[in-house]
Amino acid sequence: MVHVRRRILPPAPIEVAFDVAADIERYPEFIPGCIATRIEDRDGNAWRVGNVFRFGPAPIPFKTRAVLVRPHALDIEAVD
Q: The pTM is what?
């Protein structure tokens, strides 16, 4: 399993940076390799997200769980 942890201190107000990072359904517009994202379920601040990324010639679908703690944290982990 791959584990990526990244802490970013953006040169913008934290609320603005959080809103960009939390706009999950727009990830295909600015994340390389991201073909599609869709929020499938919302339970308070926890979202189940369907994702499709392209690795080489193959599209790879997978699910993630995103937990939002506005404006301080966005925790995303694979669930399948």
A: 0.82
